Automatic annotation (TrEMBL):
Residues 91-283 form the Aminopeptidase N-like N-terminal domain. It catalyses: Release of N-terminal glutamate (and to a lesser extent aspartate) from a peptide. PANTHER family: GLUTAMYL AMINOPEPTIDASE, PROTEASE M1 ZINC METALLOPROTEASE. It comes from the Eukaryota. It is found in: Cell membrane. Its EC number is 3.4.11.-. Substrate binds at E216, G358, A359, M360, E361, N362, R895. One of its GO terms (molecular function) is peptide binding. Pfam families: ERAP1_C, Peptidase_M1, Peptidase_M1_N. This is Aminopeptidase. It is a lipid-anchor; GPI-anchor; Single-pass type II membrane protein. Keywords: Aminopeptidase, Calcium, Cell membrane, Disulfide bond, Glycoprotein, GPI-anchor, Hydrolase, Lipoprotein, Membrane, Metal-binding, Metalloprotease, Protease, Signal-anchor, Transmembrane, Transmembrane helix, Zinc.
Length: 966
């Protein structure tokens, strides 16, 4: 029995490429239509839309019927012990994969022969497949004196587990076998996972098609039948078929060994790649494209050299130079740090036009979304440079963390993603020490995940996952950002030289195999010179939800520290017995004082009532969690906060950038959670008038703009805006809109941060200048665009405050013809900024058409519109009305669909909106990979409502005493 792929329409009508509405009436009438020119077309389009909808519904019913048929005909008696996990008694050793994609038809044919090791006597073999049509199956003995073929019974499909079973008429004995399948499927351009089709326009405006893959976490089964779990590592020999000529070629994890022209038929070429090292299925990769490469040699150990290449479309090759240079430096940095060579003969990077994630660490062939890899110094911002560097350093870290040593199961995903997320900053800082990347770590990683982890809806780093939706959902901030934050903390208390020696031991011990969290901790523990019980310490951070706030009380020369779980909602109730550790942590407490600038480390055990730190002589001030290395907050008594505030105001450079950032982050978060009076937090901001570093201003911008949004419906809104305008005024005039070639990286980042804050609180000069630059550009027939560093701000705030319908239409045309993926995203965000509800409604409809906005960017478009106060309710209403379209296009297993809801509702702060969300979730109870995100969204809005009730009056009182009326 075989499951056939049903190719569906992506759903939702949109504008025909190049067909622009020209008047407001046409725009209003055109929502969801394909033609604007006449009433006949209008009626025909409605009929077509209705028919299309009817066909989709029929298709869905047919598929549902087929699915039910498969379930009811499943021979459960023959597989009584089958569950979500594949049986461990059958292991793949080698895959011989043959794939022949037809780029024009959007289909592929394939063959796979898997060498399996059967470890017990059995009557069936279970493995994964999804959306494949299996046309033949064979099972043969292997490496015996006389090999023979087994007689097989009908295949049994188990859609619930995305598995199928190969039953045998006679019992299998232990030993080696060849299991072979022939199959075909669709290159699914609407899903952009599995083996799929991507397209782009070349220099002659011809549409070019490629076939590419994205298999993590559970999508390899969409390309070939396989044992699609990370612990089933095997070697791969791959053959790919591509059109002969027209610049087409094939890429896979390994180097090409053999090229056969006119095979399997004239006009086709078959490429055979070298046998791979043992790896998990999710790391395999197949690309058939007309890309061209730039190549440099990198140095391995013992004078070995290997090629590093960047593959791009022909017109974008010049944008590959920066990534190639960085890639060579990064891979050499890791080889030197771990003292373990990169094990493959080559390392390719490919910029894919349609790509669901930022990047994917396929071994030897890392794939990226174009906007995350390609960089043009003339047209791209300095921030884009940071982005390219960190995404390459993240993916290359996976060559060791994830590829060389792989987690045994997805519950330990943080061993992959936490390490890669930490090492991306460590390595990038190592090759670019003047870029300040470790300071960025705080705001991009730790502060970001603090928001998520301070909610009851959070989850432990290590948690049970038991279906594809839960696997997909665990690719979240906890695995990545909390994982990276506790690794940074661990590196600090173990000490770097010991830590990386232990990491090398860990990698060498489990090379080409799988490991669990306990394996890592055991090796770190054995390496620790202080006999630290690393497992006991780190289990409190990885196996329970949340993090602590350490409260500090001073008594003479003593400081008494206590701990409790920090929650954004102080009224949230939880049961301490739910955690094995009672929501207590073993905390590495570090501190500096006015007498000691080198941090002192002491341990606060989870079972201790408190921790007392006593000095022989009084200290003027003490600052806990030096450089915010520890994953915890610190709260002082008001008198101590006053002392620290005075240091900031009069001697802020006495403290490191990280310590200044830490004060701002903690004081506002504690006030928001009612652990501290908001007056203390607001007082702390006064020092910012002397601050010239970008990172503290980034934290202030984040905190102040969030408050500004929440206060928008209160009487305090105008006074709050005025306070922030006064606060930012001096530094705004210092940075201005002019970007100089002599500006250092801190100045460049400070400028964009300050301009964003000033414009967001309606600083008159900021908006005027943004509007003037915007108008000059939009009316310039030469289309000379603003400097790359300020371009997205000009597009957004220029459109928001000075843009009209005519300007929006001009910008839409520029957006439509733009070929650079990064510039296209900037223009898209600018279009989302217009203060017109009917145009924003039209823009959403335009964006559903992939001729305008690729499916991979549609969520970003919706989020950008929702970030515009005018667009927030529009997006919410549209998503609720078009949920079935989104599910059909992306599936409920898509984690980006799952994270859409909290992104577009994060600033809701009324009972009405909370009720709307609850009603929407009740209407569509199946959340798929978005289940935790729904809980997070509800908790966020509930907290916003409580925040307003608790804090708006306190802030109003503070503002009345600190802001003079105009």
């Amino acid at each position: 029995m075989a499951t056939k792929v049903s190719k569906r329409s992506s759903g939702g009508a949109g504008y025909r490429a190049g067909a622009f509405p020209t008047t407001k009436t046409q725009l209003q009438a055109g929502t969801g239509l394909l033609c604007f020119t006449c009433s006949v077309c209008f009626i025909l389009s409605i009929i077509c839309t209705c028919l299309a909808t009817l066909l989709v519904l029929v298709d869905q019913k047919v598929e549902a019927a087929n699915y039910q048929y498969l379930l009811t005909t499943m021979n459960t008696e023959s597989v009584p012990d089958l569950s979500f996990r594949l049986p461990k008694e059958v292991k793949p050793l080698h895959y011989d994969v043959y794939l022949h994609p037809d780029l024009e038809k959007g289909t592929f044919q394939g063959k796979v022969t898997i060498l399996i090791d059967v470890l017990n006597r059995r009557s069936y073999i279970a493995l994964h497949q999804k959306d494949l049509n299996i046309t033949s199956t064979a099972l043969n003995t292997y490496d015996r004196e006389e090999n023979f073929e087994f007689e097989l019974l009908d295949l049994i499909q188990i859609p619930k587990y995305e598995m199928f079973v190969v039953p045998t008429k006679n019992e299998l004995h232990t030993g080696l076998y060849h299991l072979s399948f022939e199959f075909n499927g669709a290159l699914q351009p609407d899903k952009i996972v599995g083996f799929y089709s991507s397209k782009y326009k070349d220099a002659q405006n011809r549409t070019r098609y490629i076939a590419t893959s994205k298999f993590e976490p559970t999508y390899a089964r969409r390309a070939y039948p396989c044992f699609d779990e990370p612990a089933f590592k095997a070697e791969f020999t791959v053959k790919l078929v591509h059109p002969t000529g027209d610049n087409y070629g094939a890429l896979s994890n390994m180097n090409a060994e053999c090229t056969q022209i006119n095979q399997p038929s004239p006009g086709l070429t078959t490429v055979t790649f070298a046998k791979s090292v043992p790896m998990s299925t999710y790391l395999s990769c197949f690309i058939v494209s007309d890309f061209i490469a730039l190549t440099q040699m990198a140095k391995g150990l013992n004078d070995r050299q290997f090629p590093v290449s960047v593959y791009t479309t022909r017109t974008q090759q010049d944008k590959a130079t920066f990534a190639l240079d960085i890639g060579v430096k990064i891979i050499e940095y890791y080889i030197d740090l771990f003292r373990i060579d990169y094990p493959l003969p080559k390392l390719d990077m490919a910029a894919i036009p349609d790509f669901v994630s930022g990047a994917m660490e396929n071994w030897g062939l890392v794939t990226y979304r174009e906007a995350r890899l390609l960089y043009d110094k003339k047209t791209d911002s300095s921030a884009k440079g940071y982005d390219v560097v960190t995404v390459i350093s993240h993916e290359f870290a996976h060559m060791w963390f994830g590829n060389l040593v792989t987690m045994s199961w997805w519950n330990d995903l943080w061993l992959n993603e936490g390490f890669a997320s930490f090492m991306q900053y460590k390595s990038a800082d190592g090759i670019l020490p003047d870029w300040g990347l470790m300071d960025l770590f705080l705001i991009e990683q730790m502060h970001s995940v603090f928001v998520t982890d301070a909610k009851l809806s959070s989850h432990p780093i290590v948690q049970t996952v038991s279906n594809p939706d839960e696997i997909t959902a665990i690719f979240d901030e906890i695995s990545y950002k909390k994982g990276s934050s506790v690794i940074r903390m661990m590196e600090n208390f173990i000490k770097p030289e010991v830590f990386y020696g232990a990491i090398s031991s860990y990698l060498n011990k489990f090379i080409y195999h799988n490991a669990e969290t306990a394996d890592l901790f055991k090796i770190l523990q054995e390496s620790s010179p202080d006999s630290l019980n690393v497992t006991a310490i780190m289990d409190t951070w990885t196996r329970q939800t949340g993090f602590p706030v350490v409260n500090v009380k001073k008594s003479g020369n003593k400081y008494v520290l206590t701990q409790k779980r920090f929650l954004a909602n102080p009224d949230a109730h939880f049961d301490s017995s739910e955690s094995e550790y009672g929501y207590k942590w073993t905390i590495p407490i570090t501190y500096i004082t006015n007498n000691t600038s080198k941090p002192t480390l002491v341990w606060f055990d989870k079972d201790a009532k408190d921790l007392v730190i006593e000095f022989k002589e009084p200290v003027n001030w003490i600052k806990f969690n030096a450089d915010e290395v520890g994953y915890y907050r610190v709260n002082y008594e008001p008198t101590e906060w006053d002392i620290l505030y005075n240091i900031l105001r009069h001697q802020h450079k006495t403290l490191s950038v990280s310590d200044r950032v830490h004060f701002l982050e903690d004081v506002f978060s504690l006030a928001s959670a009612s652990e501290l009076d908001y007056g203390i937090a607001m007082n702390m901001t006064a020092y910012l008038k002397q601050e010239k570093h970008a990172i503290p201003w980034s934290v202030a911008t984040s905190k102040l703009t969030a408050i500004d949004t929440l206060l928008s419906s209160t009487i305090s809104s105008s006074k709050f805006k005025k306070y922030v305008r006064d606060l930012v005024n001096d530094v705004y005039h210092e940075v201005g809109w002019h970007v100089s070639d002599t500006d250092d990286r801190i100045s460049l980042k400070l400028r964009t941060t300050v301009l964003r804050l000033a414009c967001s609180v309606e600083h008159a000069k900021c908006l005027k200048e943004a509007g003037e630059i915007f108008k000059n550009w939009i009316q310039d027939p030469r289309d000379i665009r603003p400097h790359p560093d300020i371009r997205d701000l000009v597009y957004y705030y220029g459109m928001h405050h000075a843009g009209d319908e005519a300007m929006w239409r001009i910008m839409l045309k520029k957006f439509t013809v733009e070929t650079d993926s990064t510039e296209k995203l900037k223009l898209m965000r600018g279009l989302a900024a217009i203060r017109s509800t009917w145009i924003l409604n039209i823009f959403i409809t335009v964006a559903t058409d992939e001729n305008y906005v690729r499916a991979q960017d549609f969520f970003s478009c919706l989020i950008a519109i929702s970030d515009n106060p005018v667009g927030t309710p529009i997006v919410w209403d549209w998503v609720r009305s078009n949920w079935e379209f989104l599910v059909n296009r992306y599936t409920l297993n898509d984690r980006y669909l799952g994270s859409l809801i909290p992104s577009i509702t994060k600033m809701f702060a009324t009972e009405t909106k909370l009720n709307e969300m609850e009603s929407f979730f009740a209407r569509y109870p199946d959340a798929g990979a978005g289940a935790m995100n729904r809980a997070k969204a509800l908790e966020t809005v509930s907290n916003n409502i409580k925040w307003l009730a608790k804090n708006s009056r306190n802030l109003e009182s503070w503002l009345n005493s600190h802001v003079q009326n105009n």
